[in-house]
Design brief:
Elements (H helix, E strand, L loop, with lengths): L1 E11 L3 E19 L4 E3 L11 H13 L6 E6 L10 H18 L6 H6 L1 H15 L5 H6 L2 E7 L2 E7 L6 E7 L5 H6 L7 H19 L3 H7 L6 H4 L6 H10 L4 E4 L6 E5 L5 H11 L4 E7 L6 E4 L2
Parallel strand pairs: 3-4
Antiparallel strand pairs: 1-2, 1-11, 2-4, 2-5, 5-6, 7-9, 7-10, 8-9
Length: about 300
């Protein structure tokens, strides 16, 4: 039995559209073992067919490994809410690829983490998950942990990783409604002005450096977006109310997590969860849950039962 744990992620981080991401202390667990026929447990019926994201990534990784696709039994233990902008889809894609790699390599109990941390294997997982997901901004931090910048370049994927500041704390403000990525992408324009492109490049670079340098003050000044947030805000009721509440409670920066609708706020050392939740409830029309989190610098991990 293989038990795989994949962290939640927050992609984009303001201006880092489709390239910046950070791993967070919330995770999905998937248990996998070979079986006489493929079965999925703990999965809603509408997602339990062969097009299941885990299975698609599993098959993609098997193709990259040039091995046959075995029959497996899979159990999903889901903690990352789906369609909320916290990388739930990427977690399944990464888990599927990791399951293929571990079943192929057949490591002994206690040695699997070494396999998952080998550079060539991490790159294989990233390629498989990205082929299914379409872009690497969520898959990269889910695999490598911490803070990542990733891009598809010359038909390959380039990634740079750094530990995220361990002392920073995050508040995931999660609403009682979902927002499919496909819907959020349709809201974006096909063409941007030169001014918006220059703004995006400069602010994404400064955001990355601020996180890498653990400079939360600078992050608060530069974590501003013109590429996706202005167009997705209308899809997220209460956005301004939640943003204002986060800022009033001391958040250094606030951004739409992934394609939304979760709003993520970063604090220097602690999250005033009760006060923040109270302020949101006093002004918002929908129900919002405030979940305190910290960065996950470990990333993908697994255990194998003897």
């Amino acid at each position: 039995m293989i038990e795989i744990e994949v962290p939640a992620t927050s992609a984009n981080i303001g201006p880092g559209f489709d390239c910046l991401g950070i791993a967070l202390s919330l995770s999905n667990t998937v248990r996998v073992e070979k079986a006489s026929e493929t079965r999925l447990k703990g999965c809603p019926p509408q997602w339990a067919g062969p097009d299941n994201l885990f299975l698609r990534s599993f098959r993609q990784a098997c193709a990259l490994l040039q091995t046959s696709v075995p029959e497996i039994e899979v159990e999903f233990i889901t903690r990352i809410p789906p369609a909320r902008g916290l990388g739930s889809s990427a977690s399944l894609a990464v888990a599927g690829a990791a399951a293929a790699l571990l079943l192929y390599a057949q490591p002994k109990a206690g040695t699997e983490l070494d396999i998952l941390k080998e550079q060539k294997n991490q790159h294989l997982l990233l390629k498989a998950a990205t082929a299914v997901e379409g872009h690497p901004d969520n898959a990269a931090p889910a695999i490598y942990g911490g803070f990542t910048a990733a891009a598809i370049a010359k038909e390959d994927i380039s990634i740079i990783r750094a530990d995220a500041p361990a002392e920073w704390r995050f508040a995931a403000c999660i609403p009682d409604f979902d927002l499919e990525t496909s819907v959020a992408r349709k809201a974006l324009p096909d063409v941007y002005s030169r001014a918006d492109v220059v703004h995006a490049i400069s602010h994404a670079v400064l955001t990355a450096l601020a996180i890498r340098n653990a400079d939360i003050s600078s992050l608060g000044r530069v974590c501003e977006d013109r590429i996706h947030e202005p167009y997705r805000r209308p899809l997220v009721p209460d956005f301004e109310d939640v943003e204002n509440a986060c800022q009033a409670n001391g958040a250094a920066a606030v951004w739409l997590s992934g394609s939304g609708p979760t709003i993520l706020a970063v604090f220097e050392s602690s999250v005033p969860a009760k006060s923040l939740a109270s302020d949101i409830a006093a002004h918002a029309k929908r129900r919002w849950q405030v979940v305190p989190l910290h960065a996950d610098n470990m990333g993908l991990r697994a255990q194998i039962s003897p």
